[in-house]
Structures are given as structure tokens and as C-alpha cells.
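> call design_seq(struct)
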């Protein structure tokens, strides 16, 4: 869904004014589907797809680089909501490459803890690049083919993606058939989803905020056929570290 893509990209690169919308996307976009009687599964969520940057390019380029397409760089989208992490394109700087890897993991984590159906663009799980070309459909060139050796070179990212897929499968709280309400629907003592900020139970969705934290009640997950694991997720997309406090959840 384009709205999930754009909100997630803006949030991940630290834009202000997007936290409130990101809350809706994490919940499976009830603002778009609930009134029509549709369910969270109507929301197909993605950060990248066949049309645009790959995930690795999203964190490696500020601008599209489509000159190879022969249209004077006029083709392809201009509003990519990307950030090059400090250097445009490939670099040997270990600090920048570490940041890019972390940002790719952030994107995957955000995707897989959101309600709805997660979709991954093939190759993103192992760092595939199109050299900054965001409209590479016309390029039958080696740089645009899938390089299977990437699964070895970017093994850490691939393991992380596999782990997030397994984590989502194991926890029904991440795959709710109905929209979350913020209320206790099963008598657990906790709402199905609760929102937090730097302080527990104090969400901050104000304009300057760049952080989101939420807890999914495991007993609501168990009610739809999964384990009773409570899941606490915290994202800080500010460029400086931030301490997000939380309170312990019941062990079951």
C-alpha cells in the first residue's frame, strides 16, 4: 500500500509530523478500511516494491540515478523519501555501511510488527541494489539481474529477515483478524494494543516526535490461536539516542 510505504519511509528517515499517521499504518490502516467493513488483511504493507528503489538503495541514495534509461533522468518517481546515510551511493566507510544495514533492519522490523499483510520486494532480504535506478524495468544488464552471491555477502541481513518472518508466524498478536481497538476485549487487564512514548503509557504523537512505542497484549493473541506472549516494540528514529522506558509485562 502506497500510504504505508510513504509513511514508513518518512518515519524511518526521521521526518517530523508523520508519527500520527504511522500509528494508523501499524494498526493495519483502520482509517482507510474500517468504515467499509474491511479487515486488517486488506492492507498489503510494503516499504519497497518493483516500482522504485530497492531497500538498499533507499538508504544509499538521496536522488534517483536513471541516466542509463536514456530519458535524461526524467523517468521514475522524484518523491522517494530516501536518505543516503551521509554519502550518495556506494562507499567503503564502515560507519555508514553499518548505519545502512541498521536502517534496512529497522524497515523490515517495522513492516513485520505491523498489522496487515507484509510484502517484501525480492532481493531486499539480501541487499540487492539497482545502483540508484528507481525505474530499472528496461535494463537487461548484469547490474540489474539477481546476484545469488548476495545471500552470502549480506548474510546478516538475510538471517534477520528470516528471523522476523519466523517471529511473526509464531505470534498471532501480530496477525489479528480484526482491527485493534485499544480496549481490553478478553478480560486480560490490558488493552489489545497500548501506546507509549519515552515514558510508559504516555504516547507522544506531536509534530516534533520521532519515536513510537507500543505493546501488544499476548492474551489477546492467545484468543485468536497463538501463544500468550506480550510484545513490546519501540522505534526511535531521532538522530540521537533516546531512552524509552517500559514496565514489565506478565510472564505468560
Amino acid at each position: 500500500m502506497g500510504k504505508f510505504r510513504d509513511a514508513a519511509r518518512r518515519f524511518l528517515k526521521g521526518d517530523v509530523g508523520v508519527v500520527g499517521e504511522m500509528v494508523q499504518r501499524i494498526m493495519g490502516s483502520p482509517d482507510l478500511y474500517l468504515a467499509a467493513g474491511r479487515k486488517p488483511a486488506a492492507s498489503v504493507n510494503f516499504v519497497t516494491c518493483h516500482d522504485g528503489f530497492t531497500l538498499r538503495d533507499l538508504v544509499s541514495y538521496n536522488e534517483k540515478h536513471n541516466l542509463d534509461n536514456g530519458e535524461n533522468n526524467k523517468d521514475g518517481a522524484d518523491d522517494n523519501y530516501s536518505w543516503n546515510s551521509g554519502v550518495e551511493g556506494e562507499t567503503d566507510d564502515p560507519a555508514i555501511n553499518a548505519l545502512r544495514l541498521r536502517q534496512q533492519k529497522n524497515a523490515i522490523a517495522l513492516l513485520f510488527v505491523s498489522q496487515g499483510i507484509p510484502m517484501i520486494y525480492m532481493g531486499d532480504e539480501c541487499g540487492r541494489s539497482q545502483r540508484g535506478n528507481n525505474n530499472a524495468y528496461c535494463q537487461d544488464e548484469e547490474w540489474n539481474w539477481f546476484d545469488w552471491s548476495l545471500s552470502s555477502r549480506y548474510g546478516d541481513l538475510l538471517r534477520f529477515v528470516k528471523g522476523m518472518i519466523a517471529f511473526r508466524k509464531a505470534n498471532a498478536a501480530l496477525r489479528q483478524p480484526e482491527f485493534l481497538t485499544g480496549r481490553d476485549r478478553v478480560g486480560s487487564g490490558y488493552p489489545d494494543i497500548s501506546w507509549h512514548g519515552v515514558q510508559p503509557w504516555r504516547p507522544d504523537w506531536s509534530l516534533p516526535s520521532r519515536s513510537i512505542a507500543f505493546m501488544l497484549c499476548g492474551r489477546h493473541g492467545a484468543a485468536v490461536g497463538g501463544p500468550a506472549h506480550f510484545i513490546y516494540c519501540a522505534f526511535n528514529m531521532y538522530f540521537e539516542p533516546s531512552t524509552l522506558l517500559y514496565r514489565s509485562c506478565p510472564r505468560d
